[in-house]
Amino acid sequence: MVIQNILRGKGSNIISVHSGDCVASITRTLAQHRIGAVLVLEADGTVLGIVSERDIVRAMAGMGEPVMQMTAGQLMTRVLHTVTPTSTVQYALQVMTDRRVRHLPVLDENGALAGMVSIGDLVKARIAEAEQETEELKLYVATAG
Questions:
Q1: pLDDT of 8-33, one tens digit each?
Q2: What global pTM score does this model have?
Q3: Which of 56, 72, 101, 107 ranks highest by number of CB atoms within 10 Å?
Q4: Backbone region of residue 127 per phi and psi (left: phi > 0; alpha: psi in -120 to 50; beta: other values)
Q5: Can you give the three-state secondary structure of 41-74, one letter per residue?
Q6: Which residues pair with residue 39 across a beta bridge?
Q7: Closest CA to 24 of 48, 49, 60, 50
Q8: Pick the CATH number of 3-144 from 3.10.580.10, 1.25.40.10, 3.20.20.300, 3.40.1160.10
Q9: Is residue 90's pLDDT more than 80?
């Protein structure tokens, strides 16, 4: 299965923030949409970075309450690990494991943002794929006799 199939199922709606948005606002966005990370975008849609719950928690542990006044631009992770719509789920899972991240922006062949996938999206897809393989094997065994 490829990432494009996941995006077809979940849609390509991307929850994002601007670099000047404060962390307090970002946390409200994360909670409101029940998500673990948001992309930081320029007005023209260019991806600048990502802010995850993990980024916020680590900053809070190190600096305390003043973190809530920081901006997305100050807190975001700037080095992004990405996949393409034609990347396989297996490849995306490997990137997540190797890079210790739980969200991957999806960039098309022109570098434009096509969506974002989470570890949950990939695990759900992998389970569905395994269930389908199991059903196909059962059908094969039942009809092979």
A1: 998 778 999 999 999 999 999 999 99
A2: 0.86
A3: 72
A4: alpha
A5: ECCCCCEEEEEEHHHHHHHHHHHCHHHHHCEHHH
A6: 16, 50
A7: 60
A8: 3.10.580.10
A9: yes
